[in-house]
Structure formats: structure tokens, C-alpha cells
Amino acid sequence: PRSSHSTVRSLRGSWRLGNANGSVVLRGEVPGCVHTALHRRGLIQDPYYRFNDVMYRWISLDNWTYSRTFKTPFDIRKWQKVNLIFEGVDTVAQILINNVTLGRTDNMFNRYSFDITSVIKEVNFIEVRFLSAVSYAAEQSRCHKVYSIPPACPPPVQKGECHANFIRKEQCSFSWDWGPSFPTQGIWKDVRIEAYNHYHLIYFSLTSFFVKSAQQWSLEIESIFDVVSSKPIAGLVTVNIPKLQTQQTFSVRLQPGEGSIVLLVNINKSSAVEAWWPNGHGKQTGYNMTTTFIMEAGYQIEKFSKAYFRTVELVQEPIPGSPGLSFYFRINGRPIFIKGSNWIPADSFQDRVTYDTLWLLLKSAADANMNALRVWGGGVYEQDEFYDICDEIGIMIWQDFMFACALYPTDKNYLESVRAEVSHQVRRLKSHPSIILWSGNNENEAAIASNWFSIPYADKEVYIKDYVMLYVKNIREIVLTEDKSRPFIASSPTNGLESVKEGWISQNPYDTHYGDTHFYDYSNDCWNWTVYPKTRFASEYGFQSWPSFSTIEKVSSAEDWSYTSNFSLHRQHHENGNDQMLQQLERHFKLPQSTDPIKKFKDTIYLTQVMQAQCMKIETEFYRFSQSEIIKGEGHTMGALYWQLNDIWQAPSWASLGGLQSPTNHHFLSSLKDAVGLEKTQLSASVSQRDDVYIFVLQTTAIAPFVSLDVGSIKGRFSDNGFLMTEKKKVVVFYPWEPTSVEELEKSLTLTSLVDVV
């Protein structure tokens, strides 16, 4: 059979980019966005530098156009159908080819395919005319006249844009309490031309099931096709998994238009199937699988994929001696304590997030013994590579849909767009064994239940109806149709089955007896574990700290280096955040008193990190030991996901990665500000190289609490950091993420311990 049933022409690369009145014209990379293009061409500084988030607001208020010409590399007459495919457009744009409007985009999370069979020529001119996301969102909100949909604007401290809930775009790109406002415009994912005859494979997915009655694994394989011919096409599909001595052939018929075929492959019973296990519980075995489609038209498609075998159940059942229901995950029949963190976008500009960025962050999480991350609902559905890496290293994913901390419209156009988004994302992602849960939104059940937006009691029903319409009647319905292999919850935090029973919005979504909780407390003493909720599942909790001085230094100038500078206030997007950190510090540490302002700033930063590490350690340990006990009807905690793993820019936040967490446990008998007998220490380190890692031998003359190693801008990971040094000598290993040397490391090294703070 001939296999050239389709041909692809990528449109990645350099495009022409211009603003509305033509005063700014430059080359811009695709995939990419306007901000990174301007920065690469030297037309703006680093957007993260000092106050640039506000200085560069003009970029997102303008309307930009991407355009280019391209030659068609194939004979147009030989193909029945030619499509222009955008894997991702950010966000509102009109798409034209040869001055013919193909259509419009309004959803960053959707895949757009335009039929260009009748308009494509030998040489083509393509244009993507963007509209400012900020003005589009404002306009959409103005058009929604019947009732308002809160919140209108973020709190002033966030220096953000309004009405993010009216545009299907990364919600935190309009600002968040840990991130800047950069409402980007651009073609943020792959764009290409695809030409084909007869039939074409659009989506291909596989999900595994264990059939208890037969004690046998089976795979459900779904293929979604576009059939060009006017009558049905018949043929054969062969699925082959050599390692499992499994091969099956099916005869299929494809109807004209877009449709799917679902095949059920039973795995050979005499083969020992190795299941996919989370990090720390076993191996992440995957099996090579080939699926071959041979259709009567004589065209053959061969699809290579990895098959993983794992089951997941979300268990919500009565617990002896405790009112309410459990909330825990069983993977391959084994209850597993979920330990990990929350993931936010790794950059305001997605085109800067490379495979290496993802690999280092995720690998650090696995090296810190995490087994799970929650992809939080105010960011983006992550790129394919993110989930590939999680499959490979055993990181379970709690996947939110992209709705966060707001109410949302439910008019016809909005719902249509969301339905397309949800089908696309579920089809794209459901083959990944790492994804163990779909969750409808972040905190929106709580927003209605606790009335965050001061909605008059009489109007509440309207918003509840909208809520159920969006998350239950649309999102949930699509998820259950598209994917029967994993659980779905409507929100986080939620009371799970109890919320369902109460009409999807419970009285108190933070109830410790049901579902999951989010918990933040900035006023009580974090060393006092009695303030923490003895919950079934802690899916968000945390404390702020400042990033290290070497991180801040890159985006600031000397006048910014004080805790009360304009810069320090500007970077803090959480109301009273800087004061809250000082108040928490004062409980257990002496505040820095140095007369050298820069030393005082560095000492304060260091203390916020020590404080965050201690608070997190105490709270996390509380959740870990609550796993096996019920006290006053509360307990059986089966998950701790702290807020947050990573940072989006250099600013105070809740992030604390491979972070100041030491494996050894020490209990301080008093607050360290009252500790007696802590002497000044002489801390020193010698660095040597062994193979591709570096060995730091630390020596101290006296006990040194919270020893922190910082090697400035050299990227890498210490085997241990932020520890109490009780011996004269300690060895720490540094794993570099980029080439470095003993000299560079010695030059960049700063050693700090609590007794250095004056």
C-alpha cells in the first residue's frame, strides 16, 4: 500500500509582525508572542525587569498582526482536502489567506482547523489579525447586559487587567497574587498546512482498563478521522504489542465526514503486564505499540505509541468513627498518599518554556520524593511534553480545567467555545497515565458558597444555575463521554459526593469531613500545628517567602534592595504580604538589625525562606501523620499538595522548590530568637568535582541552624539545603543543570546560617 496519503507543510519560523498603525514593524518567531519578539529584537528590555510589567502595558492594549507569504510545496490538484491548522492561537484573531477571511478565533485552549482547499494557490499570503485581549474582555463584559459576572477587576495590589473571566485565555495573564499582568498576543503553538486524500487521522488515544471478572487488562483505542470521500471507506486495523504477545485485527467502516472508531484490545492473558506506578511505588513501564490502518483506498497509516496500564479510583466512602466520607486515590488497587505541589505556568510567555525548563522542574519534584502535581486552573493546559515527562518519571497529575476564582458567563457562544476546548483537551490528554483526575475549576464552588463577590441573596440562584450549566451540564458531560477511565470532580475545594448531593454547591466546601480543602492562614503562628485543618485531602496550603537575592538582583537595581523599597512593594501582589511575612518572622526569629541596608535586605530575604521552610515542614508533617488517625471525628488525610512548586517571575510568592527541606527532623525546644548558647560560627566550604557532579565539603566550628547554600545564577540542585548543621563536617552534592566549574562555583557561593543574621 502507498503510505503517502497526506503531506504537511509547517508554517513555523519567522513572520512579519506589526502593530495597528504600522509604527512598529519587526520579525517575530512563530510559535511565539509579541512581547518575546520585541524583546529578542532589542525593542524592549526584559519584561520582568523592575517596573516593566506596568511600563509595557501599551503592548497588550495595541492590536497586532502576524503575516507571511509561503509557497505551496505540493501540487494542489492532487489533493482532495487542504487544511490550515493552528494548535493554539492566543487569543482573539481573524484569520485570512489571500485576503479571504477563513474564520475567527476566541479561545487560547482550542485547536482551530480551516478548510483552505478552494483558496490555496501556489504562492500564498497568510494573515492573523489580533485584537487586544484586554479590550476584547472589556467589550464582552459590556455586552453581557442582563446581569454582571464578578469579579470585574483584580485587587489594585495586583496591577492587573479587568474581566479575565470573559475571555478563554490563561486567567493569570491578567495578573494574580503571585504574578504580573502580561496579556499576550501571538501564535503560541504549532501552525501548519495539511493536505490529504480519502481519510485523515485527527486524534488517536488509548486508555487502559482492568476487567476484574476476566482478570485481564484491555486497551480502548479511539481514532477520530476526517473522511473526505463521499461514500463510506472500509478496511482493516491491526494493533500489535510485541512485548505482550498481543496482536488483533479489526475490520472497520468509516462514514463520510468526521467520526470516530473505538477498538477494544484484550491483552494476552499469558503475558505478565507490568503496571504503571507513581514515583516511589514501582516502575513506570510502557509498552511499544503499533497501530496500522489499511483502508480500501490503498492508503496506509501507521501510528506508533506507548501503551501504559494503570487504574485509578477516587474512593469516597464512610469511615468508622468519623462522620462524612473518605477522599483518596487508589492506583492499581493500592491506596496512595498523594504528596506534591501545585503547578503554575513556568513563564508569562509560553514560548520561553522549553523542554529543558519542564524537565528540570519536574525532575526536581521527583527527586524531592513528590509523586503528584496539580495543574492549577488559572494557567494553561500544559504542553504534551509536560505530560510525557510525568508519564516517564511517575508524577501523577490532578488536572484542573482552566477556570479560576471567578464566575463565568454561560451564553450560547461562550458554551460552544468551552465545549470545543474541553473535547479537544480531553482527546489530546487522555492517553497519559499520569493524569489521575479531571477537576472542573479552582475555588468557584467556594466563591459562591462563601459569597466572595457579595451577591445579594435574591440573585444567588442565577449564579448557581450558571455554575451547574457550565461545570456539570457541559464540562462534566463531555468528560464522561470522552473518558471513562478516570474520575471527575466539579471543583476544588469541594465536598465531593456531598457537594453533588447538595446540588453541586455545598454549604461549606472547606468541610474537613468531605472532599479536599485549601487552607491559608497568615495571622496565626505557623509553628502551632493545632491551627491546621485535619482534612481528608489538603490540595492547597502554603506560605509566602522572597526568592533569593541572586534571583532578585537580575531584575532590579541597587536602589531597589531594601524590604520597603518601591520595587519590593511593586513585586508583592498579595495584600499586606510583606508585613505578614515580618509578623510571622517576629514570632520565632530576631529581625535583622544591620546598619548596612543591603545586608539587612539579604538577611530579611533569608529569614523569610527559613520561616517558609519551617512553616511548610510543620504543616506537611501534620498532614502526613493525620493519615493514620481519626481524632474527634477528623483525619485519614490522604493527600498534601502545597502551594506552589514553581514561580512565574522574580517576586515574593508561595514557591519553595528541591527548597529548604531537610530529610532529618529536628525539634526546636524554643523559638530561635530565645535560643541560648548559639555561638558565632566559622562556616567554610571546599568544592571539588567528581564525574559530572560537584562535592561541597562544609565545615563549621559550632552548631549552625538553617545553613543555606546559594551559587548565584548557576543553575542546579543541591542534595540538601537549609539544614541544621550539628556535626563539624557535612558533605553536600551539587547537580549542575548547565556546564560549570569548581572556580565558578567557588566564586558564586554564598553560605548563610541563622547566626550570620544580625
Automatic annotation (TrEMBL):
Extract the GO molecular function terms from the UniProt entry: beta-mannosidase activity
Q: Report which reactions are catalysed by this protein.
A: Hydrolysis of terminal, non-reducing beta-D-mannose residues in beta-D-mannosides
Compartmental location: Lysosome
- Ranges for domain Beta-mannosidase Ig-fold come to 678-756
Segments forming domain Glycoside hydrolase family 2 catalytic? 329-491
Major place of residence: other
Specify the Beta-mannosidase-like galactose-binding domain's residue ranges.
Answer: 15-189
Which InterPro entries does this one have?
Answer: Beta-gal/glucu_dom_sf, Beta-mannosidase-like_N2, Beta-mannosidase_GH2, Beta-mannosidase_Ig, Galactose-bd-like_sf, GH, Glyco_hydro_2_cat, Ig-like_fold
One GO cellular component assignment for this chain's record is: lysosome
Q: How does it assemble?
A: Monomer.
Protein name per the record: Beta-mannosidase
